[in-house]
Structures are given as structure tokens and as C-alpha cells.
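Recall the central idea of this unit: under ordinary conditions, the amino acid sequence of a chain determines the structure it adopts. In this exercise we apply that idea directly, starting from the sequence alone.
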Amino acid sequence: RPHRTTPSSQPPHNMSSSAVPTAVAPATARVAMRGSNVRSFRRAVAAPVRSVQAKRAFAVHAGPLTRNDVTETIVFNRMKKGLTWASLAEAVGKSLPWTTSALLGQHQMSAEQAKAAGDMLGLNKDEQMLLTYVPYKGSFGKPNELVPTDPLIYRFYEMVMVYGTTYKEMIHEEFGDGIMSAIDFDMDFSRLPNENGDRVKIVLTGKYLTYKSF
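Accordingly, the structure predicted from this sequence is:
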């Protein structure tokens, strides 16, 4: 039987390797995994680039820009520019906890607040606009994660597991049958120097809301 040659792993003759942006390197790697042929190569090069920064650079989008995309951009640009959350809070004119939470996608910002933070973070107009919309709240952990696996976030989950019923009893005994609001609410964060190791201080205050009879 005559020997059958397999398609070359090189790009098509009308597409040099230098014409392919470096940002699509993961796509070419996927070609090698599937088996190199012209059709696979073209399909992989056309595949959306998953990096938010690459999507902005090459204008490749799997769909409309989302609030999660903006959050990823904020986290990346803050590190790249060497900005602190405190400096962003000062520019926005709100507290450190609120500003950090808002920029991580948990609060709606005014247009002025979005522009103040967005200009520092290098966000474009569309990204700043998404900061002004009511977000789908929830930052418990990874998607579909019932118990947080991040060690720091898990400590708060652990506090509720251990002290949740204690909080409940103390609040009911002092106030009655109701809840502590997480909407009419504020939080203060500080670092307490200590010779045995600095301590984290977080103070939560929320309006007491009683259950209504009707």
C-alpha cells in the first residue's frame, strides 16, 4: 500500500507563523492536542482568547463584556499600576471596605465614583459603565462552591459555624425576634499592633430589624 502522508503541522501556506499573534499561543497548543491539520489550525486561531487583557488588545469576545470581566481587569490593573485599595477608596470618597467590595463587583457605584476609580485603573468607558449597574451579589468563593476553600475566606465561614448560634442567641436576648441588617450596615477595618503579632480588627454594625406580625 502506498504510504499516506499526514497533514503538515505548519500553518497553511498563505498564513505565516509570524502573522499569528502571540496571544493565541494557547490555541496553537490546542491544535497539537487535537491533531494538526489545516481545519483544526484555522478553528483554533479563530477561537476566543480567554485572557481579559488579550480580549481587549485583539477585540476578540465570546460575548458582551460582563461585570466579571471588569472585576478581573480591575484586579490585574491594580497590581500592574501598584495601586492600593486605600488610594482607590480615597479617590472614590468612600470607606476602604465599601470601595473594595464595590470594585470587586458587590456594590453599585455612581457615575462619578466609577470615573474616579476607572481613571486610576485605566478602565474604558464601557467598563466604567458596568460599575454603575446593580451587580448580581455574592462572592462566597469559586463558582458553585458550597464551602469556601480559600483559607482566609474559610475562617469567616468557620466563625459562623462555631459562633453562629451564639450570635443568634445574644441578638435575640438583647433585641428580640429579628435580624441584624446587612443592608443598613457598615464595617470598619483596622490593624492593631501587638508584640505577639499584629491583630486584625473588623467591626460590623447593622440596624436591628424586628419581624413584623400581620
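The two ends are 88 Å apart (CA to CA).
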